[in-house]
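Reviewers of the previous submission asked for a worked example of the structure-prediction workflow described in the proposal, so we include one complete record here. The input consisted solely of the amino acid sequence. No template or homolog information was supplied to the procedure at any stage.
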Amino acid sequence: MADPVSEHVSHCILCGKCLQACPLLKATGREELGPRSKSDLCRVLAEDPDKLSETDAARLAGLCLGCGRCREVCSQGQDVPGLVAALRGAHPNFKSWLWKTWLTRARQLWSPSSKAAALIPERFRTEKLGPMLKMLAGMTGGPGLDPFLTPRAFPDDWRGERMLLFAGCTANYVQGRWLTAALRLLDGLGADVLPGDFACCGSGLKGAGFADEAGEMARRNVAVWREAGRPRVAVFCASCLAGLRAYDAFESDGEKAQWNQALLPLSVAVRGIEFMISDNAPDRLGYHHPCHAGKDDPDRTWLRALLGDRLVRVTDEQCCGFGGVMRLAAPGLTEPVNRACWEALKGADVVLSGCSACLAQLSATAPDRVEVGHWLETIR
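From that input alone, the workflow returned the following structure tokens.
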């Protein structure tokens, strides 16, 4: 059997493009945390596993945000997040097991954990656990944003279109308002929303090194789509959409192409809706561009066109610092990444995004009097 780490190692020509793209390196200035260093160390580990101890290998596996920005710019096709995920899978530890449990038991854990975290007094929140507890407490989002967009006219483009809605774990278990808003929009568009019992997208598990569990979820979700007649699948979480696009659980290349064509960002479907912006709309809005949305971010495109001059801040190169399992493995290293993100958003009173993971991180770290929410929360 091939070594799972060596399968992801390719030749590095030392061009340095990944160093310019890595938000962890930019925020910390520590080149040993950059993609090239991880690639070099993993190559050493693949050639001679005894050169790194189990502890060193596990620590190395934890020091990656998994944002994928280095992969986008690498001319050699080096997939450092995939390499690190393979390393995590080969050297699991308690924190990765905890992350796996958190993701695979979302239905049972997320809502009660969020409610319980909100009840813990501030004085009992230690320096290490405080940010995590705040993120847990903020997953439900409190009362949510004050809506200021009202649909006035719907196009006929999607009328009668059969669709499945992939809501994602956050909307299904703790942010029901997102799911409700999405269903209202699809109803207004006249789409025929089909029932479908999707599992988690699996991207968080895959990045943490649990390829088998992620693959099982992919097969289940593809089966749901297949059994529904292979219709369009509307998605409103950028990370979920990226995870779904990365699936490789198909009967043929043709079916894989059909799946990718079926995936529909919800913001693309709503572009033809005529919205009225009410008087309570904030004058200074920000938008956080999720790393996994890629360069062609449909949420950003739609909001820029709709909000015009009200959209005063938009991140581009900044990562929110969530980092998946790294949030548990090395939270101190994610903090400067998060600070750089908020520096780019300075001046916005309300920050929108379309990624559930980014929103969890930004809600937990928002400056005083700055509100954070999914763009679905802005719609009445």
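The domain at 152-269 is CATH 3.40.50 (Rossmann fold). We consider this example representative of the routine output the project will generate in years two and three.
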